[in-house]
């Protein structure tokens, strides 16, 4: 489903990604790990076309993403969450999730302005889709609440909901466990497993929480200083000497 080929990104003198290649099969959970500054978010930003790549290619279902502009990514079936939350704080939980559903909706500006029957039917379908996500993420009790008034752990789930509402085939999650407490991380793990089953999608997950990554991923890709240093099942990667060194080298 996803194939990253020799991807290179430079910022001035820094090579944030250095000929990174890996592939991910449909329906899998792929963990992307590595110390701070390893290039994980940069890779996400290339996949969602926020960053320009200097070299290499990214194929999604056999098609080059580099020929798709950032606004066309959702229509292909790729959604993401951000390391720092990106929600509309004065809007409700349900409105935020509905916006996610809209990001993939068809229909031109004129059709919407005239509120043609086709558009109305589509809006009903999107609303139903948003409600389904609200239910799946157990956000029903806070669906009408303003995002700004809710605790951080809930907001992480709202952001996940916003991304899911676009019905992605590939969901990119940047540190979904970041800032969550122990109990919330356990809940997130169950939630992500359930989502993969119920919505049959692929997940690419950046995470520092090693326990979560190792327990949930089918495949783990490790980066260090922009280079891929390991790629395999959690068990294979766990025993990789270079990976252990990359983490221990960064330990205080
Ligand atoms: N927009 C940018 N401009 C300049 N340098 C950047 C930019 N984005 C990332 N970098 C640099 O690229 C390297 C990789 O950064 P990146 O944010 O991808 O790391 P990361 O693996 O996501 O780290 P973290 O775990 O801290 O989130 C770092 O040296 C960073 O300073
Ligand atoms: Mg990052």
Automatic annotation (TrEMBL):
It holds the Pfam family BCA_ABC_TP_C. GO terms for molecular function: ATP binding. It comes from the Bacteria. Keywords: ATP-binding, Cell membrane, Membrane, Nucleotide-binding, Transport. InterPro entries: AAA+_ATPase, ABC_AA/LPS_Transport, ABC_transporter-like_ATP-bd, BCA_ABC_TP_C, P-loop_NTPase. Residues 2-250 form the ABC transporter domain. PROSITE patterns: ABC_TRANSPORTER_2 (PS50893). PANTHER family: ABC TRANSPORTER ATP-BINDING PROTEIN (PTHR45772:SF4), CONSERVED COMPONENT OF ABC TRANSPORTER FOR NATURAL AMINO ACIDS-RELATED (PTHR45772). This is ABC transporter ATP-binding protein. It comes from Roseateles agri.
């Amino acid at each position: 489903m996803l194939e990253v080929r020799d991807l290179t990104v430079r910022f001035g003198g820094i090579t944030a990604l250095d000929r990174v290649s890996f592939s991910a099969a449909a329906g899998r959970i792929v963990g992307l790990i590595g110390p701070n500054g390893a290039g994980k978010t940069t890779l996400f930003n290339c996949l969602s076309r926020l960053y320009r790549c200097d070299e290499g290619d990214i194929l999604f279902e056999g098609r080059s993403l580099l020929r798709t502009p950032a606004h066309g990514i959702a229509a292909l079936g790729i959604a993401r969450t951000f390391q720092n939350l990106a929600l509309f704080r004065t809007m409700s939980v349900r409105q935020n999730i509905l916006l996610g559903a809209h990001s993939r909706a068809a229909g031109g500006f004129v059709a919407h302005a005239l509120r043609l029957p086709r558009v109305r039917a589509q809006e009903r379908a999107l609303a139903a889709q948003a409600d389904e996500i609200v239910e799946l993420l157990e956000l029903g009790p806070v669906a009408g609440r303003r995002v700004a008034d809710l605790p951080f752990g809930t907001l992480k789930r709202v952001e996940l909901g916003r991304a899911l509402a676009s019905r992605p085939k590939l969901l990119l999650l940047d540190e979904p466990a970041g800032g969550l407490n122990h109990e919330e991380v356990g809940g997130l793990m169950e939630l992500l497993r359930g989502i993969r089953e119920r919505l049959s999608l692929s997940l690419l997950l950046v995470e520092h929480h090693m326990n979560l990554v190792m327990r949930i991923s089918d495949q783990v890709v490790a980066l260090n200083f922009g280079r891929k240093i390991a790629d395999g099942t959690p068990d294979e990667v766990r025993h990789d000497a270079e990976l252990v060194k990359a983490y221990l080298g960064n330990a205080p």
